[in-house]
Design a protein that fits this description.
This protein has nine helices and two strands; from the N terminus they run H-H-H-H-E-E-H-H-H-H-H. The chain has a two-stranded antiparallel ribbon. It has about 260 residues and is mainly α. The relative contact order is 0.14. It has one domain. About 75% of the residues lie in helices and about 0% in strands. It starts with a helix and ends with a helix.
Length: about 260
Amino acid sequence: MDTIVDLARSDWPVFLLVFFRVSGVMMLAPVFGSAMTPAPVKIFLSLVLSLLFFPLVGGQGALASMDLGVLALATVWELAVGLLIGFASAMLFAGVQFGGHLIDQELGLLQANILDPMLDEQISIMGQFKVLTATLVYLLINCPHLLLGAVSDSFRVVPMMGLRFSQGAALHLSDTLMRDLFRMAVEIAAPALVTLFLVTIAMAFMARTAPEMNIFALSFPLRMAVGFVVIALGVGLFVAGFESRAVQHSGTVRALVGMLGG
C-alpha cells in the first residue's frame, strides 16, 4: 500500500485523473451515490478506490508532464467518463421507481408522495417500497462488486483521455438503457395493473346488473385492497425478477465501458 501511495505522489496528475473518474461513478451509482451517503464518505471511498485502481493505469507516465490547462480539461473528460458509467448503472433503479409510480397511479396514491432519502426527492409510496426492496437485493447479490469490476475494466479499455464515443454507440446505448428501463417498469407493474384492470371490468358489470349499488364509493377501497394483496403476494416474484435484471444490467454497463473505448 505504501508503494501505491508513493507512486500516486510521484504521478499525482495521473492519480488526479483516476480520482475524478472514480468520483464521477460515486456521484450517480446506486447505493454509492445515495443522498443518504455523506459527502465525506463518498470522497473517502473515491480516494481509497482511486489508490486501488491507480496501478491499472501504469505506462501512462507521460501524462504526468502535462500543463495545468490540459490537466484541467482532462479532469473534466475523466469526470464525464465516470458520470456515464454511474448514470448507466443508476438507470436500473429508475426503472424500479417508474414501475412503482405506475402502480400508485392505478391505486390512486399519486398524491401520497414521501421523501426518498436515497434519491433526495419526492417519490410515490410504491416507488419507495420497490426501491428499498431492490436496494436490499442489489446489495445481497453483490452488484456493487460487479459495478466496481466495470470501473476496473474502464481503466484497461479506456485509457486516460482516451474516451472514444461515436454517435452510433451513443444511440445504441440510449436505446438499450431506455428499453431496459421500460421493461423493468412494466415487469414490476404488470401483475398489479392486470389485476386492477380485471377488477375494473368486474365492477363495470356490477354497475350494469345492480345500478342501485354505489360503485364509485366501493371501487376505491376495493381496488386498494386487491392491489395491496397482489403486491404482497408478488414480492417473491419481484425479488427474483430484479435479481435477474440486475445481473443483466451489470452486463450492459460493462458493454458501455467497451463502447467508451471505441
